[in-house]
Amino acid sequence: MKGKIILCLCLAVCLTVLGVSGFMVWNNYAQRQDNQEEFAELSRQTTVSATNDEATTGPETGMVDVDAAARADEREFARLGSDTNQNSVHDFKSLREINSECIAWLTIPGTTVDYPVMHTPNDPEKYLNRSFYGNYSVSGVPFLDADCTVYGTNMIIYGHDMNGGTMFAPLLNYMTKSYAQQHTTIQLETEQGEKIYTVYCAARVKSDDLFYNLKDAPNQAYFDQKVKNLSQRALYTLGNQPEYGQKLLTLSTCTNTGQDDRVIVVAVKNK
After folding, report:
1. Domain ranges of the chain
2. What is the mean pLDDT of the chain?
3. Whose CA, among 52, 151, 165, 192, lies 20 to 30 Å from 18?
């Protein structure tokens, strides 16, 4: 009798644990979905027409015209293969009116990476688990390194590797050269306009890797040494080795294989 009671208690504990675990998994998934929908809506609300032939707001109500915004997005992304800078897709005045800590919008065509970028030098990881609107968020928002600026040599942007392929999860695909060759273009919009970068390499590093120190190169020797060291450790390079004077964009995420492991994708701004 006593054995049956113990067995029943064990089963009850197991079922409770499974129930709690299941709820946590579901809740995490639901939060990720909510975060993605929030980003998509923010993008629609702040998208501007590249050709000015379609307004993104209704003439009478002033509400966002989602279809027009989507068409504007499609036109813009179709043109991202060009090596020349294009007009910005997003209205930064509107973005900064919503949140003044937004300094860029990052897009990698053909992937799920299509997010605002935040910058809080006095609170470096403020958006690690915070939404664009300041609420708790399991996904967070990609953010620029506290010591970087949009004018520096190397803009380092961090983002989560989320289950389900959202946020910076697609960066893990860049560990394969063939994937990188099919997704070489990275778009970064700022108040100064749209900049197009081309992927140079990907590497597996630790969180304290010395390449993270390259933010604003004081001279050519420093820049060349950092690039040479990275190239020697890279999983591959695509031939467009950065030259002193060129701007770099580094995207960084964890690998989920170890607490200190990171993947970085380094791209060069098109001339």
Report:
1. 103-269
2. 81
3. 165
Is the Cα torsion angle 184, 190, 195, 197 positive or negative in sign?
Answer: negative
| Strand pairing category for 236-237 and 143-144 | unpaired
CATH class, 103-269 region: mainly beta
Amino acid (one-letter) located at 207: S
Candidates 118, 209, 191; CA nearest to 151 is: 191
Percent of the chain with pLDDT over 70: 72
The 10s digit of each residue's pLDDT in 139-162 is: 999 999 999 999 999 999 999 998
Distance CA 131, CA 22 (A): 24
CA atoms within 13 A on the CB side of 145: 22
CB-based contacts of 268: which residues, under 8 Å, 6+ apart?
197, 198, 200, 240, 242, 246, 247, 248, 249
CA distances, 11 to each of 3, 8, 17, 22 (Å):
12, 5, 10, 16
* Nearest-angstrom CA–CA distance, 186 and 117: 14
Q: Enumerate residues 6+ apart whose C-beta is below 8 A from 261.
A: 204, 205, 206, 254, 255
Q: Which two tokens stand for residue 233?
A: 């450790």
Q: How many CB atoms lie within 10 A of CB 20?
A: 10
165 is written with which tokens?
Answer: 């392929």
**Sign, CA torsion 52/56/62/65:** positive
Distance CA(84)–CA(79), nearest Å, equals 10
